[in-house]
Amino acid sequence: MKAPNIRMGGLLAAPAVLYMVMFFVVPSLILFVYSFWTAASYRIMPDFVFSNYLNSLMSPLFWTVTINAILIGLVTASITLVLAIPVGYYLVYVSRSQVILYLILITWFSSYLVRIYAWRTLLGTSGVLNTILIQAGIVDTPVGVFLFSRFAVAITLIHIYLPFCILLVVSSLSEIKKDLVDAARDLGASPLGAFFRVIAPNAANGLVGAFMLTFVMVAGDYVTPQMLGGSSGQTTGLLIADQFRKTGNWPLGAAQAFLMFLVSIVIYLSVIGLGRATGLIVKRRPSKRAGV
Amino acid sequence: MTIRPPVIEITAAQKMFGSFQALSDINLSIEQGEIVTLLGPSGCGKTTLMRLLAGFETVTAGTIRIDGRDCAGQPPERRPVNMVFQRYALFPHLDVFENVAFGLKVKGTPKTEIRERVQRMLHIVQLDSFANRYINELSGGQSQRVALARALVNGPKVLLLDEPLAALDLKIRQHMLVEMKRIHAETGATFVYVTHDQDEAMILSDRVVLMEKGRIVQVDRPETMYAVPKSLFAAKFLGETNLFEAAMASDDASGMTAVTGSGLRLRSSIVPAGELRGKVIVSIRPESFRFNRDNDTTQSATGKVEDVIFIGSRSFYTICLADGVRVRVQVQRGTRTSLPKPGERTEIFWDSDNVVILPQS
Fold it and tell me: d(Cα A68, Cα A62) in Å, to the nearest integer?
């Protein structure tokens, strides 16, 4: 009975797997090989050195921008998830409104760059925020700190990635039946208690996935920090992009890309560890009767 | 003897969903320790009534008192009731023990007490050795027991059961009904049981609450409701019956005789619930007919045997009366009378205490 299923599964997955192997796995491996090569005057040479990794790790600039990227990523992804969960909860358990879902998707129809410029206008010294503050008499002169700050970067990134995060939350909550919430309430849990005791543990994989995907996209986004972050806008993404575009040091860029990859894994493991420690992620014991 | 207040008292309750009237004029009181079933076809409002008791819905008008207290505005977590859900709604991330312990843990019960109470409850539902199983490792019947234990361990004043056996197959369902009665006897809790299955209702209940289109149409002991249905709906919904269109006999002042179109007089010794006049429906259960005369109150008619269906312990005869009306007659196996064969003419007999005269609508 099982064999045809496996063959069928393989057949259906083959195009996607093939595509990913050709355009993701192979290039990643090439990049990984590059990360051990050396570069001199815009030429890269085959080699096997660890200097790209060591130099990056010993460079204060690398640490500054990486910590910056991680901070922006963690803060933004956390706020985005916290904002996305109530919306997801509403869409799954309260009103299965397709209209609201499409309204959320519509925000994606506008260009990414246009939205960044829109925030520049809103937060700038002659922007809406400053105008309101001056007219309300709260400040006398325009405040410059809104724009070109981590605040500006975070607010823009949340704006851009929130719809995406909501979709991920909706899909992870969809698998959990409303009955479970009712049962938890019936057994004495408050609405919030039902969320933390029943929904969160059962949706843990999906919610961690939503957080991590948002984190990876936000931490890797180097356009928004560059355009809105000012001096705080240097992130690893930008640093890596520069190695490829400006300095032509592909091996160094490759090594830094893999270091960022490692950082993401460390953060993923930390999130899982934190979830387990707080009881929001429940690890199941291995089943006694596997396959039943 | 002390008079205890009813554990549930529903007064003039109404529920609207938008402009749809889901429940109207519900009055019901349930005594401590009773098993009461809310019986009716789908869409009759029985589940809504249960969700009102659980606190998942709120009444549009009227009051619900549980254990003497008006529970208006009380969320589910503050009500002294627990529910067994139709699809069990067990927590997949917890094992059997943790599922049953959930309610006690939420209330901050000391660990040793939780252990003790959960183990005792698992013993009652006969799942002692399943404490460490996960939910997806259980059969339907076992899941059902966990759901029962998870609710009952909290010592609810009332246990609400929402079609708990609907997802099980027949054999297990019959077994679980017996189990349910035993568990009820052992825990002494009040059970309010929602079902659309008349057999479940009759097997389990002390009283049956029959519902139709958002209203309670009759509340009675199962035997009474079966023997003396107060409406055509009740007669048809519970068990099988023969229905005759008839008119009240003008020469009978007591209002206990109806005459069919072909002149068959059907006399009833059951005092009707309300006044009967004009056109009526007469209900006589298949098992109320016999092929032999026993006593003076007996009434009779003649007809031809059209068809005999044998199903083990009993047989069903279809008798075509003179006017073409067909009557179903049920005969228990082992009846010591000579039984007619298909095609033969025969006389059938019945007593007036098995004849129920009902208003037409």
Answer: 10
> Nearest residue on chain B to A198, judged by CA atoms?
B91
Q: What is the ipTM of this complex?
A: 0.85
Contact assignment for B76 to A183 by CB distance below 8 Å? no
pTM value?
A: 0.83
Here the contacts of B303-310 (C-beta below 8 Å, separation 24 or greater) are: B303/B327, B303/B345, B303/B346, B303/B348, B304/B343, B304/B344, B304/B345, B304/B346, B305/B340, B305/B341, B305/B342, B305/B343, B305/B344, B305/B345, B305/B346, B306/B342, B307/B342, B308/B341, B308/B342
Domain boundaries, chain A: 58-278
A283 touches chain B (CB under 8 A): no
Q: Which fold has domain A58-278?
A: MetI-like fold (1.10.3720)
User: Which of residues 138 through 197 in chain A touch B, CB cutoff 8 A?
Assistant: 177, 179-180, 182-190, 193, 197
Q: Residue B317 and residue B333: Cα distance in Å, rounded? A: 13
Pairing status of strand B215-220 against strand B242-248: unpaired
- Determine the residue of chain B that is closest to A190 in CA distance: B77
β-pair type (B158-162, B190-195): parallel
Chain B partners within 8 Å of A177 (Cβ): 87, 89
Three-state secondary structure call for residue B323: coil
Buried b (16+ CB within 10 A) or exposed e, A130-156: beebeeeeeeeebbeebbbbbebbbbb
pLDDT tens profile A164-210: 999 999 999 998 999 999 999 999 999 999 999 999 999 998 999 99
Is the Cβ–Cβ distance between B163 and B204 less than 8 Å?
Answer: no
